[in-house]
């Protein structure tokens, strides 16, 4: 993503309340924010507009968050990926380059993660 490009964020969680909380918490972070309640919906959205940053829940209907992230990375190399979860998956199944964001994740950590992939990180 170029420095002039508007970042695009995709939040994926089966719980609409989690998605709403993420949007509220991050409303002042610059960029386009979209949300999906399933991996299938997220893949459709990413096809229409590839995200620069994805935060996906680990447990999703039909496909787990790691499988979703793998599919998104195959379509959009370089996408920054975070796994939002209440339980840490086994270390041996987490591919390199995925940031684990344990729920509840401190707001400052979420913001720092998003900004690190947006080109708007503090210098």
TrEMBL record:
Domain Response regulatory: 8-123
Domain of life: Bacteria
Xref: Pfam families: Response_reg
Gene3D superfamilies (UniProt xref): 3.40.50.2300
Record GO biological process: phosphorelay signal transduction system
Protein name (database record): Response regulatory domain-containing protein
Organism of this sequence: Cystobacter ferrugineus
